[in-house]
Amino acid sequence: MQIQLETQKYSSIQADALVTYVFDKDDKIDGVVADIDKAMEGRLSALAAGGELTGKSLEFLLVHFPEGLDAKRLLIVGAGKRDKFSIYDLRKIAGSALRYLKSRGVKKFVFLAREDERNPDAAQAVVQGLVVADFESDKYRTEKKDREVQSVSLAGFDSNASNVQSAIERGRIIAESQNFARDLINEPSNRLTPRILAARAEAMAKEVGLGVEILDEKKITELKMGALIGVAQGSVEPPRVIVIRYTPENPRSGGPVLGLVGKAVTFDTGGISIKPADNMEKMKYDMGGGATMLGAMRALAFLKPSVAIIAVIPATENMPGARAQKPGDVQVAMSGKTIEVINTDAEGRLILADGVTYARKLGCTHLIDAATLTGAIQVALGTVHVGAFGTPREYLDNFLESTHSAGEKMWPMPIDDEYQELIKSQIADIRNTGTGKGGGAITAAWFIKEFVDDTPWIHLDIAATCWVDDGRPWLAKGPTGIAIPSIVDFAMKL
Q: What's the CA gap between 295 and 201, in Å, rounded?
């Protein structure tokens, strides 16, 4: 899909459709929409008076062959309340418009920004919305509808401003990197084993100029990654650890090194503590944290932050084979800490333990991990917010500022010392699930914290937000690509 700035006046652009937006319960139609209304001899005002044009969030009004426009259709999208509107609502508006028009066979349309949303940040938001919305989850369907948006023109922006053009490119890079991650998450596990994931990560890294190293099972054993080996031993598929490096052109001596650690369980049966059969097919998405970090690294390779970054992604299956670890087993992690395995379905935190340990060994001074870690985070936050944990609090607050800049919803979760007591073991140093009921997402985070020591650290539990069972007007059902924009923003500012 081509996206370009449009230099012509919007009314004279020949396209299948022109898209713009209005607010809920405005006293009057104003700005550029008022100009369109005037050219249409007040038809929009009449539709608003009759209740057909409301401005309610993501409601659509489609007008065919509108007077005064060379476009064949006019699509007006509701923008919701004006006082609650941000430029990041433009993502949803642009994405919803694309999916609405795409389903109707539109090949080319124009997105017309209103007067208050004609800056670089708005242009980036629109492009991200368009590119993310264009992703479909039907990769393996043999019969597909021939519906593809070929080009979108952005009207209303200053076409001569270099910063607007840079923002468009930045938006495309981030969104395409989200879609890269979404494609990985969407893959069936027979088509994305740990070895295949490693191969695809290696190909991506070489394509965009990143350093890459793949640790095989022999090297993993030499490094004594006992927590990862314990999870992997039940599968015939050997584990891998993917290491990807970004080095800035002019690295600062003694500067920070950001470590991005992602859980990549390419299929999770639960192991001996096997999951129920209902919805187990979705456990192909349990490598979503790893895919998130691969997508972030892809974007950062193009955007070139001034900070060094190392991604460490432990990849494995969790299977109930004859050699699988059992409840009650004790594993020795790479750090030397011993772990009593209470539940083999609490495997993500085990592989992250070795992942963050190895990242620190490689010199990472600051850490972010992402994982589809617990069902408990959905109990706490539903499917709206990512659960964000971190220490020290100042480091987490800095990251949360980036989530606001990126327009993503994340909520700070507690990591109080009292929760540490819940993962103490009678036979080993720690146990992999908490005692008692409740606080499951917190005790899982505390388990990982045991391996980061005093390193500034953020843990993102994306289990409830990495995948949507029902599509949104702006998003296909399936993987979402959550957290990549926030991680990229944070890395660029670090």
A: 10
| Residue 116, CA distances (Å) to 57, 73, 109, 125, 314 in order | 18, 24, 21, 14, 45
Give the integer Cα–Cα distance in Å for 166 and 328: 55
Angle between helices 440-449 and 348-361 (to 10 degrees): 30
Which helix H or strand E contains 93, and what residues bound it?
helix 89-102
Position 198 pLDDT exceeds 80: yes
Token output for 15:
């396209």
Residues 391-401 have a mean pLDDT of 98
For the chain, domain boundaries: 2-156, 173-493
Calpha distance 475→94 (Å, rounded)? 11
Q: Residue 119: how many CB atoms within 10 A of its CB?
A: 17
Closest CA to 97 of 64, 59, 63, 67: 59
Q: Kindly tell me if the per-residue pLDDT of 26 is higher than 90.
A: no
Q: Structure tokens of 362?
A: 């490689």
H or E element, residue 310: strand 308-318
Does domain 2-156 fall under CATH 3.40.220.10? My reply is yes
State the chain's mean pLDDT as an integer.
Answer: 96
Contact 200, 184 (CB under 8 A): yes
Q: Which of 66, 146, 149, 152 is nearest to 109 (CA)?
A: 152
Interior angle at CA 162, CA 157 and CA 167, nearest 5: 70
Q: Which two tokens stand for residue 99?
A: 């999916």
In sequence order, the 6+-apart residues with CB closer than 8 A to the CB of 299 are: 173, 174, 177, 484, 488
Q: What are the residue numbers of the active site?
A: 275, 349
> Which CATH architecture fits 173-493?
3-Layer(aba) Sandwich (3.40)
Three-state secondary structure readout of 196-256:
HHHHHHHHHHHHHCCEEEEECHHHHHHCCCHHHHHHHCCCCCCCEEEEEEECCCCCCCCCC
Averaged pLDDT for residues 326-337: 98
pTM beyond 0.85, yes or no: yes
